[in-house]
Structures are given as C-alpha cells and as structure tokens.
C-alpha cells in the first residue's frame, strides 16, 4: 500500500518553503502548533502536506488555492489546540468553511470576496468560482483534532483506507498583485511619536508603506521594511484606547488573552512556542519582572533594570523570540519602558505587542509604588523595531488604513514642539528671532540677520530635531519677514498674520 500511496506529490503554488511534504492524501493544518512537532510522529507516506495557518483573513485563501491545485488531497486534519489558535480563529474559520460554506460579501480591504459562514471573519478570493469551492468542500473529509496524538491517530486511519482517486484535475486561478509606489527616505533609524498606540500605529504604517524598502521575507513573499524604527507612545490610557469604529487589528477580548501571554508564566507544552511570559518569569530560572521591580525599589535611579528574552544557548532554533530586550527607567518620577524587537510585523503584531508591553509597564510601576511607597506616573512606552515590516498580504489593508485614518490623525495634531518655539519680529534693519523653551517660554537663544536663508540655516544647524512642520512654518515666516524688511517700510510683518501694506 505504501508503494502505491507514494505516487502523490504535493505541489504548492503559494508558500512552498513553509510546508512539509509527504506522499499521502491527507493535508494537516497545525495552526499555531509547530508543524515539525507533528511531522516527527508520522511517516511521509501518511500525509500529503503539513502546514500552519495563522490568519483567516489572509492565509485561508492561499491554503484553499493550494488545495485546489492538489486534488489528490481527500482528507484534511485541522489541529485546533492552543490558546493562540482560539485567539486567531484561523483553524475555526477553515473548519467552518467546510462545515457551513460561504457567501458573497466584501472583505476588510473593500474587495468583493467569498466570506466564510463563521463567527470568525475569513475571506476567499472571488476569482475562485463558487461551484469549484463547493466541489472542494464535498470532496474532502475534514476532521478537527485537539492534540498531536489525536492528529496522528486520525491521519493513520485515513492512510489505511487505501488510494482514493483525485476529485479533479489540478485547478489554478489568477491572483491579483498590488505593487506599491515608494517615496525616497532615510534607510536606517526612524522616529515616530503618538499619544496612543492606535495613533502611533497609523503613523508607523504610513511611514513604512510610503518609504519602506521591498525585500524578500524568508517566508515565500515580500515585505516592505524600515530598519530600526523607534516608536514613542506618550499617553496610552490605563484601560487602553480602542478607536470607534475600531480600526486596530485586535479587540479587547483578544487583548485580554494576549496580555496574559506577556505577564504570566506558562508551562512548556510540546509543539507550542514559548510565550514572552515564560521567558520573563521562568525560562532562565529567574523571575526577571520581580528582579527589575526589586532593583528599582532598591535604587530608583538604576539604569540596570533590564530583562532579556534571547537565550543564546537555544535561539538558533526554529522559533527565536522577536522581543529580545526590555529596559525600564525612572526619571522625574516617571517610569518609561523601552522594548527592542529584532523583527516586528508592524501591521498584524505591533498593536498587540505594544499593548501587552504597556500592561507589563503598569504592573511594574504599581508594584514599585506599593513596595517603596513612592508616587510614580506612567512615562512613555518606547518600542525599537529593528526590522519593522509589513507583509505583502497586508499591503492593501495598510493602504486602506492610511486612506481612512492618516490625514485625520495628522489633522488632530497639536503644535507643541519639544524643541521649543520661535518669536520672529522685524526691527529697523534686521529680522530678530528669539528661541524659547516650551511651556515656560524662557529665551534660550537669539538670532538676527537681514536674510531669511541665513537665519533658517543657523536655526536648522542649532536645532536639528525641530519637527518637520514647525521647520517649514519657520521657513515661510522668515521669508515673509525678509519681504517686509526689504520693502522699504511699505509692508509690515506680524508673526502668523498676512503681510500688511502700510497706510
Ligand atoms: O511578538 C511577535 C512575534 C512575532 N512577530 C513577527 C515578526 C516576524 O514577522 C515574524 C517572526 O519571524 P522570524 O524572524 O522569527 O522568522 O513574526 C512580531 O512582530 N511580534
């Protein structure tokens, strides 16, 4: 039987390097359980392919396309085992596609799509004909499994049924590709600031989408990437800000589950990836969160409050953590946290990453306050994303987000520049510029010249961190002042007002 079964060869049109291939007729979908942990319990002739499914909105359609191209697959086993699977809902959605079917609708990117009849939102490309999808549903026997052991039992029992004819010839349908237009910009080191995680996220997505470089991902696709992106979130409220309507890729119920993955220890489970909570609380035999709290209670000025997640002994393996280093600092009674990610999916993962870290920051601050009787307030959360990227399958969503939110967010900015403000006046024979501190308005520097160009060059040299819009505003104001000065008293200049003709 084995000899005959090995005639089948699975050919993946999509994500070919992310799959484990066998010669049988059962496709195994492992969700968030590491696929190699399932493979090691099976013989290659027992399965057709083993792959992971993370996203019902973006992964499902590619999975279906691969199944259509491999009609010898007559069984599907879906391993829906972990907390992450429950949270993501991808496995549930796949099962519902087979159990409940689909209807025509509109996707989150505004495209007409097939929408799975499920409580979990999932899409399949409309280019695939309805009848073909129904044929697929009827031609594959689907089983849900709750453990690796259960997968093995089911897969082996399917393999014993002998050869079943393919249900069709291989089927392939056109796939739409979006190629982004990219503006020039710096390559390394980027700073983005916002009050909330939601606002900062929109700015991050805009920056990467407009100036990021397109590169191969290592996962059979492309991403748009900026290197070393620092995001500073200044005022995320304690109960988190979710916009109305919620344009974030997560909601409150997801967040609740996710926060526990960062805050709490979790026992090791076969095939299940580490969680950050585990790495912080127990992996190195030390509770690093406690350690940081104790250090700051002992010495509030310490710059040694560090947590490390990278394990040099094992992190050359398949699943090294993306979050690697967390640093907590107290200055002016304000507790800030800086977290470094070696690699960060800024569209799908960053909002949850940031909210989880914010929850950790709050726990650390509360504990320090309680144990040291000091009064601290929450400072900013800073994330440093070394590879800050957006995967190609999110580009359309990212463009839509920018279209619907970015201008609105930029319009709601305030004009306070931490680099200070400038008062411009035109004296007898020169333009005078006073540089003042923000808030208190102390004069810290004074410039004078007849030439706007000379002034802006000097100011730009002295204050290179001026906000872009502020700098452009100063250029325009200085030019107006120069026009008034050279008008031989015909025009008068008042900052922020149109030039006036002297009567
Ligand atoms: O907390 C996390 C965990 C994972 N990722 C993303 C970053 C990468 O896109 C991918 C991991 O890929 P590797 O670098 O481990 O191959 O998952 C995050 O953004 N945040």
From TrEMBL:
GO terms for biological process: dTMP biosynthetic process; methylation. Keywords: Methyltransferase, Transferase. Residues 272-405 form the Thymidylate synthase/dCMP hydroxymethylase domain. Gene3D superfamilies: Thymidylate synthase/dCMP hydroxymethylase domain. One of its GO terms (molecular function) is thymidylate synthase activity. One of its GO terms (cellular component) is cytosol. InterPro entries: PterinBD-DUF4346, Thymidate_synth/dCMP_Mease, Thymidate_synth/dCMP_Mease_dom, Thymidate_synth/dCMP_Mease_sf. Residues 417-496 form the DUF4346 domain. This is Thymidylate synthase. It comes from Iningainema tapete BLCC-T55.
């Amino acid at each position: 039987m084995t000899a005959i079964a090995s005639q089948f060869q699975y050919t993946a049109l999509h994500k070919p390097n992310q799959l484990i291939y066998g010669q049988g007729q059962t496709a195994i979908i492992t969700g968030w359980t590491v696929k190699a942990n399932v493979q090691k319990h099976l013989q290659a002739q027992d399965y057709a392919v083993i792959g992971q499914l993370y996203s019902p909105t973006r992964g499902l359609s590619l999975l279906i396309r691969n199944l259509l191209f491999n009609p010898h697959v007559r069984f599907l086993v879906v391993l829906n085992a972990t907390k992450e699977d429950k949270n993501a809902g991808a496995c549930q959605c796949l099962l519902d596609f087979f159990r409940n079917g689909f209807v025509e609708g509109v996707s989150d990117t505004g495209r007409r799509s097939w929408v799975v009849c499920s409580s979990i939102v999932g899409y399949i490309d409309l280019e695939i004909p309805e009848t073909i999808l129904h044929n697929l549903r009827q031609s594959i026997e689907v089983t849900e499994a709750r453990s690796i052991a259960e997968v093995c039992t089911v897969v082996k029992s399917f393999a014993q049924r002998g050869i079943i004819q393919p249900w069709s010839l291989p089927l392939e349908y056109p796939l739409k590709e979006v190629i982004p237009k990219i503006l020039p910009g710096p390559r390394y080191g980027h700073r983005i600031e916002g009050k909330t995680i939601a606002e900062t996220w929109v700015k991050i997505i805009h920056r990467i989408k407009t100036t990021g470089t397109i590169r191969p991902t290592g996962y059979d696709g492309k991403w748009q990437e900026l290197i070393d992106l620092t995001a500073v979130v200044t005022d995320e409220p304690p109960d988190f800000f979710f916009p109305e309507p919620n344009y974030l890729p997560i909601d409150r119920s997801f967040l609740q589950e996710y926060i526990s993955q960062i805050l709490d220890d979790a026992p090791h489970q076969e095939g299940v990836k580490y969680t950050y909570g585990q790495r912080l609380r127990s992996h190195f035999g030390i509770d690093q969160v406690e350690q940081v709290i104790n250090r700051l209670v002992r010495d509030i000025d310490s710059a040694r409050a560090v947590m490390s997640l990278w394990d040099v002994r094992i992190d050359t393996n398949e699943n090294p953590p993306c979050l690697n280093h967390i640093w907590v600092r107290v200055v002016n009674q304000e507790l800030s946290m800086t977290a470094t990610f070696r690699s960060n999916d800024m569209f799908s993962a960053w909002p949850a990453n940031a909210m989880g870290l914010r929850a950790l920051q709050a726990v650390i601050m509360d504990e320090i306050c309680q144990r040291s009787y000091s009064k601290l307030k929450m400072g900013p959360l800073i994330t440093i994303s070394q590879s800050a990227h957006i995967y190609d399958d999110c580009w359309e969503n990212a463009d839509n987000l920018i279209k619907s939110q970015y201008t609105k967010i930029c319009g709601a900015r305030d004009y306070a520049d931490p680099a200070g403000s400038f008062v411009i006046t035109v004296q007898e024979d020169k333009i005078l510029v006073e540089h003042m501190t923000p808030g208190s308005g102390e004069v810290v520097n004074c410039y004078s010249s007849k030439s706007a160009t000379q002034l802006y060059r000097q100011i730009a040299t002295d204050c290179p961190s001026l906000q872009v819009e502020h700098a452009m505003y100063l250029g325009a104001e200085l030019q107006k002042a120069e026009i008034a000065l050279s008008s031989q008293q015909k025009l008068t200049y008042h900052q922020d007002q149109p030039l006036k003709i002297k009567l």
